[in-house]
Structure formats: C-alpha cells, structure tokens
Design goal:
The complex is a heterodimer of chains A (145) and B (150). With 145 residues, chain A is α+β, with helices and mostly antiparallel strands. Helices cover 30% and strands 21% of the residues of chain A. Chain A has a five-stranded antiparallel sheet, with helices on one face. Chain B has 150 residues and is α+β, with helices and mostly antiparallel strands. The chains are: A alpha+beta (145), B alpha+beta (150). Chain A binds chain B through residues 5, 16, 18-19, 23-28, 30, 32, 39-40, 42-51, 54, 57, 100-106, 108-109, 112, and chain B through 1, 36-37, 40, 52-53, 57, 66-67, 77, 80-89, 92-99, 105, 107, 109, 111, 127, 129, 131-132, 134-135, 147.
C-alpha cells in the first residue's frame, strides 16, 4: 500500500466507523426467535440462522470509541478511547506496507485490531501494542462525532 | 448447513448472448446461493475479474485468485447467515467465523452489491476474503467445513 492509498484508507476507516458501531439502517428482522447474535465473539455466522435481528452489531464494538484516523506516509494512526479507562486516549499505529491494497479489506483489518481491545482474553496482548495519544497529534474527527 | 449452489437466472450464464448482446463475459452468472439456510435472498455470483484496488476487480475470479477463497466457502458464508448486514454504502456483508487448523479463529466475509447489473439482476458478490490476512490460507475450507456441514 502506498501513501495515497493510506490516505484513502484513513478516510474510509472514519467514514465506515459509525456504520460499524451504529448501523443507521439495520437489516430487518426475520421470522424466528433465537439468541442474540454473537457477532465477532464466538464462532458462527454474523447473523445466525434463526436468530433475531443483529442487535449485537453494536455490542461487538462496545467499549471502543474512535477519535479519528490519519495517514502519515504509509502509516496509519488511529486514535480512540476505551470506555473502561475513561479520560485516557490511545493511539494505534499501523504500518501499512504489508496491508492489503483492497481498502475494504484493509479497513476491516483495522477494525479487527480495535475489536481485540474489547476481548478480555486478549486484553493484555492488545494493550501491549498501544501508545498514549499525544496532544500534538491532530486527527480528523469521526463523521458525526 | 451445507450450502446449495443453484442455477442462474435464464439467459445470464454466457455473455454476450442474444438476450444481452452488449453484456461483457465478465458479468456471466456462475451460480446463485440463497441466504437464510438456502431459502432466503438469492445472491448471484458472476465470473468477474482479478486485480488489485482500483482495477474494478470483482466476482468469482477476484475472490478465487486474489483472496484464495473457494466457491464453496462463499456459498457457505451466505447460506449460513439469516441475512446480510446492510452497510451505509448500500452493500451487504455476510460473515462466518470459525476455528481452523485446531486453534486459530478465521473470519471469512463476503461483500454483496444489490444494485442492478447490465442484465437487470443484482450485481452480486463483489469480493470475499479472510479478515486480517485477506488472502485465506490453504486448507481453510477443509478445516472450517465442520462448522457448516452437519
């Protein structure tokens, strides 16, 4: 991935974030009662057969609030807060040279890294990759935030 | 649930043809899979073309060549979701997550575009990939098959 693509990725990460956290138009529920969707947490489908509407879409992302994203060369900085550590802002730094060039896929990889932060089983592992967000780092605000 | 690959709509399998003389071969339908346990919304898989970002890559050739995702895996992901999750860009995402190779959780996503193509049917599958690496590892389909074939 080159610098131009990194810039587009930064914009895409911000553009899609709220869709991922709070889908504006959730898919309509279908017949059949079932357990809540365990999207992103357990093996299985995003919307399992027989399950009710994927209300857990937001649950998958609970705990992470995106501040913004910005590309610097072929790097991407993603700022965010974690709800269980109020008042602290973090920064994830991604080296994009090894990232896929397909933006949708690359953005998903970014989201996956963020979602790991909400997984208690991998908390320490994920936390080790974090940096504290410096005040001098200016990130574009997330749309609608 | 084991996916069932169903027939394409009439006159859509080999382009160009008499019905659609201006349709390019890349839009030829390959097969159809219905979500919601092979009973729901029909998702069309077209031949497509390979390539990186910005090349207009899509369809069967794209996910096969560029992401090492098999037809069966794409069909399994779609058939085992009650429906796709609608994104704000209008496309739908289907996902299936499972443990493969005994320890690692892989997630395969399929992106579907329901806007109309040259033949009046849905554009269908744009891409499919493994989250993270995007290029799925060899043997993933075999390893994950227990997840959906019972």
């Amino acid at each position: 991935m080159n610098a131009h693509e990194a810039e587009r990725l930064a914009a895409l990460v911000q553009e899609q974030w709220l869709d991922r956290v709070q889908p504006s138009q959730p898919a309509p529920p279908r017949d059949g009662a079932g357990a809540d969707v365990q999207l992103g947490k357990a093996p299985g489908a995003y919307w399992p057969l027989g399950a009710t509407a994927p209300s857990a879409t937001a649950d998958r992302h609970a705990g992470v609030d995106l501040i913004g994203a910005k590309s610097v060369g072929v790097s991407l900085m993603v700022g965010f807060t974690l709800r269980d550590t109020p008042g602290r802002e973090y920064l994830l730094h991604f080296d994009l040279t090894e990232m896929p060039v397909e933006l949708d896929a690359a953005a998903n990889s970014i989201y996956e890294a963020l979602f790991l932060l909400t997984d208690p089983a991998r908390w320490e592992q994920s936390r080790a990759r974090l940096l504290t967000l410096s005040p001098e780092v200016e990130l574009l605000p997330v749309r609608g935030a | 649930m084991a996916p069932v690959e169903k027939d394409c709509p009439r006159n859509t399998e080999q382009y160009p043809n008499e019905a659609f003389p201006n349709a390019e071969a890349i839009y030829s339908c390959q097969f159809v899979v219905q979500d919601n346990g092979n009973t729901g919304y029909p998702v069309i898989i077209r031949l497509g073309r390979p390539g990186p970002l910005g090349s207009g890559a899509f369809g069967l050739i794209h996910y096969t060549v560029d992401h090492n995702v098999s037809d069966e895996m794409v069909a399994a992901v779609i058939a085992n979701n009650a429906a796709g999750l609608r994104r704000r860009d209008g496309r739908y995402v289907y996902g299936l997550r499972g443990v493969a190779f005994g320890e690692t959780i892989y997630t395969v996503e399929v992106i579907v575009d329901r806007s109309k193509s040259v033949d009046g049917h849905d554009f269908g599958v744009v891409t499919a990939y493994c989250l993270g690496p995007t290029v799925c590892p060899e043997g993933l389909e075999e390893s994950m098959r227990a997840l959906y074939v019972r």
